Amino acid sequence: MGQTMTLDALALGQRPSGRTALRARWILGHAGGTHRLLENAELVIEGQRVLYVGPAFPGEVARRIDLGQVLVSPGFVDLDALSDIDTTLLTVDYGPGWAKGRVWPQSYVDRGPYEMYTPEELAFQKRFAFAQLLRNGITTALPIASLFYRAWGETVAEFEAAARAAGEMGLRVWLGPAYRAGGMVCTAPGVLEPQFDEARGQQGLDDALAFADRIAGYCDGLIQPMLAPDRVETCTLPLLRRTMAAAAERGLPVRLHMAQGRMERKTVEALHGTTAPRWLATHGLLHDRLIAPHAVEATDDDLRLYADHGVTIAHCPLVYARDGEMLRSFRKCRDMGIRIGMGTDTAPPDMVLNMVIGLMMGRAAEGGAAGLTTAEIFDAATIGGADALGRADLGRLAPGCLADIAIFDLSDPGFAPTIDPVQTLVFGATGRVTRAVFVDGRLSMRDGKVAGIDMEAARDQVQRQFEGLLAKYPDRTWGHPAVTDLFPPTYPPVMAD
What are the residue ranges spanned by the domains of the chain? Predict the structure, then answer.
């Protein structure tokens, strides 16, 4: 019946041979179209897939691993996954954005925007970010990074490095370099104007399509392509028409940020006389492969268009709650039939934290607990993201599904008492209790360690790299103020003698 052993007996970064039974206090299986909680149960994986979920498995296994007081869950699907050394943290207590390096000043454009990271640094930041996603129970990710410190868009070279990193580390990803045909420029204090370069946008799409055709199915299907036009206000109609036609031809998901902010809303209104969702709908560019992060500025008409065309909202509550904003509301969107997945979009890339913030903001938006249930937010982080990708074999633990598994340690004293394990995890508000992660049947993370990266050394490198970027902020900020003026400390510093 197989030897009983601990998780430490498995080799990190490898897929165990033969059948492996995971025994746990709680397993979140899936049957009849919904997650179902099993107590004192077993999950058996063989190769890349789940073989069995239920009471003690009666068949032969190569090994049994007794995990104890844990919740075994489907891994989270992150539709807007941080793959950056996060710069949005610099907006939380500092503003306005045009005065803090979040919009290029005309002087910087005239001088010539440049890459503020080396190719090696760009490759490293994705490797580090991928490790952080795995450490937080995220097994499927659609990476997102800032373009503010880039010369223009993302490059194929850095995404080829990202594909190698994901394959080595064992993270399931949909990859595509972000491209755009324009950008917002600060031409005077507080005055923001779009400037466009159509040829550059079309070249970015050409490069993205060549990458997509080359990368599809890499690493036994672990790596898949997507198309990632940047913000809607930086895209022209010809660029979006080509994007959506190519996505339809290849069956690719498209992620396009829209209905996400006031600057975008005003810009699109000035350019096109309507909202971004209505503009796309008018030209037949909304569809069920489209993932539209945030929707915090979506009108009721915009939301009806999302519902009618099967658009998925990538809900990222943490990054908006920091500024007192929210989706209004999760309940309204679900009642309208809109598909909702989850994203992290900032540091920490903690899906559990995002779930509890989403839960609280969803209830606040509706004035009571009926505004959102724990099950609904958990579904969004698992089933919702998988369905947005057209993948019924992800976001669920059932026979035949891919073995993408997150194991949460509920024996942690901070999680006592445990009442319902899913509620306890969500209201515990941290993914730091993620004990292990399997992706495609492979042990990708255990006790904070990830195959292919030294996290302690990486943390020091991240800090050095971020400080190097910070030193360049004055170059792309109106008036070019000193860093100390851009980002003063929370409290006045006291200098030691």
Answer: 1-73+395-447, 76-392
